[in-house]
Structure prediction request, 479 residues.
Amino acid sequence: MDQAGPTPRGADFLLLDPATAPARGLTDWLATALRSAIDDGLLAPGSRIPATRVLATELGVSRGVVVEAYRRLSGEGLVGGRTGGGTTVLIQPARAEGPRPQPARQGPPRLPRPRLGTGIDLSPGVPDLSAFPRGLWLRTERAVLTETPPEQLGYGDPRGHPRLRTALAPWLARTRGLRAGPDDIIVVSGVAQAMALLAQQLCRDGVDSIAVEDPGSRGAVNELGFWGLRPVPVPVDDDGIRVDALAASGARAAFLTPAHQFPTGVVLAPHRRRELLAWAMMDAELVIEDDYDAEYRYDRAPVPALHAAAPERIAYAGSTSKSLAPALRLGWLVAPPQRYEDLVAAKHASDLGSPTVPQLVLARLLESGEYDRHVRLVRTRHRARRDALLSGLSEALPAVTVKGVAAGLHLLITLPDGSVDDVALAEELQEASVLVHPLSWHRRLPGPPGLVLGYAAHSPDSLRAAAATIGQVVTSRLS
Prediction:
């Protein structure tokens, strides 16, 4: 008679989120999780663990990964199997005396990112990485390495290299209306580091919550939450964040994307700007302004950054992630003067300063005008791709509302309230080889469904084909 315990259902007993699976080392990841489940008693001796094919399907990994993980545990004497009997837990490992080591703290949770295989990934926030100016960057880097004296290759100024800060100041004034000198700028490893430094500073100041736009960037919400701030959702309408709801929230800090709100694409209206600035000056400790895709404006003039109107209350952050590539990890933070020195100290403590050579390359590109020329070229390319996706959607879904088209690298399809589950719709599109974000991923408050589509990374023909597929799936769901 088979005495084995019940088989755990699917992968739930592992408490694993498939979206957190590493790009490499899947076998180690799974074997460690199984070993921990046995050690913690989630899998008692005699328990039968799921078949390799079942667990592979649940986790979205190849069956070979699961087979190899089981083989390792078998070699350690933790599990065993026989024909027709499945794989069962053999022993409970002896616990070491003394307190168990705590697991390492994981980073901010990431958005679910299903494996697409072949198809088109329209996830928002992905720039056209094929447009990175490799030849220009290589030539400029060679020039930088030729002219840079050895002493500048040591640990640099934690604020950032003086040459880059000197080049950034007039560029930010010309393109975004900032009134900031070189000594007001901190070079950071992208907007994410700026958020981390500011969040930790706010927590030290006794601020425990932060208002965030809703819908708004889920990645930003996760980042702020990881560093100890409780996100408080505040609704966004066609004029931007509702300042009356912001004031009623009781939050003393806010994270905003006022020039091109993510994901709706709306611009903070003039009367809302005035209301927001009044709130910032009277009731706020800090407003964090994320200017995440300021370079890309197609059908309207650039909107000046909020920072210039209240520099003592607003921290402005931007980066090259959308204009060049996220891998460069180059960004800038212009913070209120009273916060500057503490942020520089925190930046120094976190990484001893940003890499010098990429800073000097960017400085030369700004000084020579090559950076602006590159952005103009890519802007033209992105506009053509936006137009292709728009035309495809207008043919496939003529009755659907499309928002946020005047700027940026994504657009938003909104659907009638209560008409469809946008998560289920996104899953159906994934099965049709088109990956999109359901709007509800970026929402905590009730609201209509929708789809967020990024278009920067794909050719016009691919985008038109994706629009046709989206039209077919959405039409079938709504009919």
The radius of gyration is 25 Å. The mean pLDDT is 88. The first strand starts at residue 48 and ends at 49.
